[in-house]
Write a structure and sequence with these properties.
- The protein is an alpha/beta fold.
- Helix content is 14%, strand content 25%.
- The protein has 4 helices and 14 strands.
- It starts with a helix and ends with a strand.
- The relative contact order is 0.16.
Length: 217
């Protein structure tokens, strides 16, 4: 099975030259460290930044430069800083080509739940609502099961929904899944993981009848 950095590295392969990309909190932020060589993308942070670079080296952090998850970041030459109103104007206008989000649950028709667990205090939905409503393409980076070993790839989300039928692809430590009309379609399998293991840990509809490649993290 792959670790969080390997999941992020695999998702980075989905980036295309010229893309404007928003990285959500959690595993998605790690994608900034694995931009493929020769691919030029502009990373957008919803708190008001275009041109986000990789995480800073230890000792080189600037506390004034943070992403939406309050992690210290770097800025690339030509970066720009602006207020959150302009940032969300970009998102709502459909200027973001790809959004990578974390999730607590994803259903087999592309619904995503990633903002609230009932009974736990949250400050609000944040930018997730705007991102799932406006992004041209959404990839979810997540763990395949929760701490209890229960599937997070479901027939129907049980937690409050963030967006409906918006997720196109899910990458977990077990594999890469496209979301189609038939449900989760296994496209790549992580090294050392069997199809039987994926089936046992996936509660939603799962199809494995296509060409399945080995996932490279």
């Amino acid at each position: 099975m792959l670790n969080k950095n390997q999941i992020a590295k695999r998702i980075a392969k989905e980036l295309k030259d010229g893309y404007y990309v928003n990285l959500g909190i959690g595993i998605p932020t790690l994608v900034a460290n694995y931009i493929p060589e020769g691919v030029s993308v502009v990373l957008q942070s919803e708190n008001g930044l275009l041109g986000m670079g990789p995480f800073p080296l230890e000792g080189e952090e600037d506390p004034d430069l943070i992403n939406a998850g309050k992690q210290t970041i770097t800025m690339l030459p030509g970066s720009s800083i602006f207020d959150s109103a302009m940032s969300f104007g970009m998102i709502r206008a459909g200027k973001v080509d790809l959004t990578v989000l974390g999730a607590m649950e994803v259903s087999d028709n592309g619904d995503i739940a990633n903002w609230k667990i009932p009974g736990k205090m949250v400050k609000g939905m944040g930018g997730a609502m705007d991102l799932v409503a406006s992004a041209k393409n959404i990839i979810v980076a997540m763990q395949h099961t929760n701490k209890a070993g229960e599937s997070k790839l479901l027939k129907k989300c049980t937690l409050p929904i963030t967006g409906v039928r918006c997720v196109k692809k899910v990458v977990t430590e077990l594999g890469v899944f496209d979301i189609t009309e038939r449900g989760f379609e296994l496209r790549e399998l992580a090294p050392g993981v069997t199809i039987e293991e994926v089936k046992a840990k996936t509660e939603g509809r799962l199809f494995t009848d296509g060409d399945i490649l080995e996932m490279q993290g």
